[in-house]
Amino acid sequence: QMLQVLRESGQVRDYEIRLKRKDGTVYHALLNIDQIELEGRRVFLTAMRDITEQKRAEAALRESEERYRHLYERAPFGIGMATLDGKILASNRMMELITGFSDEDFKVINLADTYVNPNDRAELIETLKTCGGVVDYPVLLKRKDGTEYNASLTIAIVNIAGKNVLQTLHQDITERKRMEE
Known about the structure:
alpha+beta, 6 helices, about 35% helix, about 40% strand
C-alpha cells in the first residue's frame, strides 16, 4: 500500500509503521518519504520519527477515558455538570432515571425549573460562591412529570477549559426521609 502511494504520487506522508530494532524490540515510527532525482538517478529521501511513547500515551488516555466513562454511566447516583446560570452541560443515565428529564430535555430547560421553590437554587448558588462546594445539601425538587422529591446534592465548582462549572452528585433521598420520619 505504501509503495503504491509512493509510485503514484512520488511521496508518502505520515505513514505509521511498526518496526523491529536490532535487539528485537518493536517500536512505532512515522515515515515521510519523497522520491527525488539525484545525479540522474531516482532515490528516496526518508525521514522517520519514533512515536512509540506517543502511542503509549494515547493508549493510556483511551484506557483512562474508558474507565471514567464506565464509572460515570454506571454510578448509582446522578452525575451532572452545569453552568452557574443553570444550563445543563452533561448528565449520566441515572440522572435521567431520577428526574425523568432526557438529555434532550436538559438541553432546553434551566435547572431553576427543577426546584419546587426557585429561591432555593438562588440560595444554593450563593452558598457555592461563598464556600466553593456543598456536601449532602438537602433540597426539594420536582421531576419532569411534576412530582416532588427530596434530593441530596453534593456540588463542587470546578474549572474546565477556563470556565467555572458545577459538578454535581445527585441522590433521590425521598424514601430515606420517609423512613426517618
